[in-house]
Amino acid sequence: MNPPSSDVAFSPAVKQVQSERGSRAAYSRMERDGGFETEVTESLRAFLAQIDTGFLATASAEGQPYIQHRGGPRGFIRGLDSHTLGFVDFVGNRQYISTGNLSENNRVCLFLIDYARQRRVKVWGTARTVPATDELLAQLAPAEYRARPEQVVLITVSAWDVNCPKHLPQKLDAAEVAQALQRLENRIAELEAENRRLRGARP
């Protein structure tokens, strides 16, 4: 029998701590059902379409961890097939820490957050960088996003899971707030105009 997909996160040491602190039984029940999701489902695609930020965790061959922010327009991370996610890696500060780490250790964890809806998703897998070909850019490049592509990151998904929303602050996008305020101001203007009209119609 294959081990549950959640073993990508639940090592023997993790399971030992879970046992000591009382959560192992609950996670054992989840493991009997197979563990975490392993395919890029429609629900994951829908979540990706809503987010504009994420954090990619890599490590060197010696195990030194590193986390790098990745961002773009909503939906910049996309599902390419049932086991692959991809995004365009734009030119940045040219330190190439993540790229260097991937050249010697391809294991990654992608931490994705939708602050407005207070949801977060963890994705485990392996990743590689490939040239930003016209074919891949046609699939992954955000429309009208003014940044220069340098390469493409492809992630082969091993497992993913929806994380607990506890302690996740709700933050709203500035553009969405501005649009909501504009709608409110427009409605107030309509009501004020109607109020003036009704006052003027009094005998």
From TrEMBL:
Residue ranges of domain Pyridoxamine 5'-phosphate oxidase N-terminal in the record: 41-162
Classification via SUPFAM superfamilies: FMN-binding split barrel
Keywords in alphabetical order: Coiled coil
Organism domain of life: Bacteria
Record has Membrane as a keyword: no
Keyword GTP-binding tagged: no
Chain coiled-coil ranges: 174-201
InterPro entries documented for this protein: Pyridox_Oxase_N (IPR011576), Split_barrel_FMN-bd (IPR012349)
Pfam family for this entry, one: PNPOx_N
Protein name: Flavodoxin reductases (Ferredoxin-NADPH reductases) family 1
